[in-house]
Amino acid sequence: MVNIFSLYPAISCCGGALLTLFIAFLVSFNRPAISYRHTLTILITQIIMALGLLKTSFGQILLSQLIRLTNAISDAAQAGISFIFGALGTSIAPWGFIFAFHVLPIIIFFSAFIAALSYLGIIEGITRLIAFFVRPLFGASQSETACAVAKSFLGPTEAQLLIRDALFTASTSEMFAIMVSGLSMISASLFAIYMGMGIPGSHLIAANVMGISGSLLFAKIIMPTTTQTEEPSRVGVPLQERPANLIEAIIKGTLDGLQLVLAIAALLVSFLALLAILNQAFIFVGSFFGMTTVTFQDVISYIFAPFGFLMGVSTTEAFALSELIGIKFLANEMVAFAEVASKNLSDRGLILATYALCGFSNIACLGIVVGSISTLVPERRSELSGLAWYALLAATLSNLFSAYLVGIII
Could you report the average pLDDT of every consecutive run of 10 residues in the chain (410 residues)? Predict the structure, then answer.
């Protein structure tokens, strides 16, 4: 006889997945135009992706090899870190692990490595290959599919260059999907940093892969395709945007990585400090009402509680997950991942948190995505601004849906 209590986590996550789909349907710009055939196909594809990655030996081997690649890049970066920082860059020294010296510099090398692969055409080749196979399934345009695939390993701004020519003629639906994909995934250059925080690498990678179909799923429900535009057949960075040679590409990638590292360090310092001061402010105000233990993060956890409780975890973990989801939405995923260690999550809770947080779906990155696309097509800035908050909602729902789907499977 099946124990009904053992099925509770899966049933709860099933309810969460249906809730995200219902919210997307509720806010859809044109519900009659939704292609249920393509929506169902994308949904089935994402389920197959999740099962294939998490429940098959091939998927496990693939994820383990990708983790080995990420670790190999990190190990290679260690040579440069040790030369510059010496013993400060090792975790076996008496002072232990120092985040700024041990993890952040890896991003600089990773950025240079990705820049070299981009110059050699490897990134574009992989993007074209994957997009060629998945585009017929998704019923999406070439620009939407290529951008979604590219953003599974590039940042929220770089992938736009691959489809720059298509941005001028893209329909509103296509532009919306491009925005959503930029917010639904994280850059592969951040894998090492989050793995260094204790986040499971296999699930980080799986979350990004699932984000390809997830972003298109919710984009096409909220903003269905009504017209198919004629678009350039070539996917790639325009010649005028390319470095003159491989050395210049590596130098540019290195300097871009340096800027990213400085931005990450600054964001972590400021946002974690702001969280601390907000917590103190709420405690101070609460003291006048006899509630000296209520913090800002407690309030966040109550606001996002419905999504946390549908993860099928204990009440304590549900509030913790709700808080992390709220921090990711209001600040960014990096601050949320930095808070994960303090939550003492179970293995299941940690896995679900990984999927729910693995995306640039936050207010700050929303501005970056809108700004980067507007720079390429300034005449469409007002259109992009009008779609911005819906794109953020779609990306957030995509991240949550991936978490619920995995919660059903594991």
Answer: 70 95 95 89 91 92 88 78 71 58 75 82 78 73 80 72 75 90 86 85 92 92 76 52 82 82 76 82 82 78 90 92 90 86 91 94 82 82 90 95 94
Tokens 């076996």 identify what position? 92
Q: Residue 385 falls within a domain, yes or no?
A: yes
**Dihedral angle at the C-alpha atoms of 206, 208, 211, 212, nearest 10 degrees?**
-100
Domain that holds residue 403: 10-409
Q: Is residue 131 part of a domain?
A: yes
Sign of the Cα pseudo-torsion (310, 311, 314, 318, in order): negative
Question: Crossing angle of helices 381-409/8-26, nearest 10°?
Answer: 160
SS3 109: helix
| Tokens representing residue 181 in the block | 């994909």
| Residue 322 confidence (pLDDT) | 92
For residues 317 and 310, the answer to whether their CB atoms sit within 8 Å is no
Which pair of structure tokens corresponds to residue 278?
A: 């907000």
Cβ count near 408 (within 10 Å): 17
Structural tokens at position 179: 């925005």
Helices and strands (H, E) in the chain, number of each type:
19, 0
Report angle CA 268, 272, 276 to the nearest 5 degrees.
165
Q: How many distinct structural domains can be found in the chain?
A: 1
In angstroms, the Cα distances linking 389 to 33, 314, 369, 386 are: 21, 31, 12, 8
DSSP one-letter string for 46-86: HHHHHHHHHHSHHHHHHHHHHHHHHHHHHHHHHHHHHHHHG
Quote the CA–CA distance of 201 and 410 in Å, as a whole number.
Answer: 16
Ordered DSSP codes for 115-146: HHHHHTTHHHHHHHHHHHHHHHHHT--HHHHH
In this structure, what are the phi and psi dihedrals at residue 373, rounded to the nearest 5 degrees?
A: -70, -40
Give the whole-angstrom CA distance, residue 239 versus residue 378.
Answer: 20
Is residue 2 situated within a structural domain? no
What predicted TM-score, i.e. pTM, was given to this entire model?
Answer: 0.84
Cα distance between residue 77 and residue 380, in whole Å: 40
Residue 92 lies in a domain: yes
- Per DSSP, the residues of 282-343 read HHHHHHTTT-TT--HHHHHHHHTHHHHHTT---HHHHHHHHHHHHHHHHT-HHHHHHHHGGG
- Please give the C-alpha separations between residue 184 and each of 179, 293, 391, in angstroms, as whole numbers: 9, 34, 9
